[in-house]
Amino acid sequence: MTTVFIDADACPVKAETISIAERHDCPVYLVSNSGMRTGNHPLVRNILVSEGADAADDWIAETIKCGDVAITADIPLAARCLDKEARVLGPDGRPFTSQNIGSALAARELNRHLRETGVMSGGNAQFSKADRSRFMNELDKILRRPTP
What we know:
single chain, alpha/beta, Rossmann fold, six-stranded mixed beta sheet, 5 helices, 6 strands, 41% helix
């Protein structure tokens, strides 16, 4: 059975993920260091990790298995999940794959360097309705595919 792991602290598509996972009868782990309100949903487990920048990432990377799904915008976490043969989807609906993770990591490092040197400022683009829609379609497609 496929399990969905959400890097939950800043994830804008938690409710959408739970709704789609419910249609596919997949358990969902909301992993955070701040705690999430989930009600008493039978498929959702709230995993509270210790404070620390990478505690949620570490828990997900250590727990996820081949064929599971990770929802994260964190590129290094995406790479760690791909190493375990999990499927990874960004909150904007763009999948991370073994074919694109190298360029995503390189672009992340380049942007970090440009921000540190003052050449570039600002952050990521605003999250849009189109991003949310693309995410929902992609997650549904991923969960309909058989696990590897």
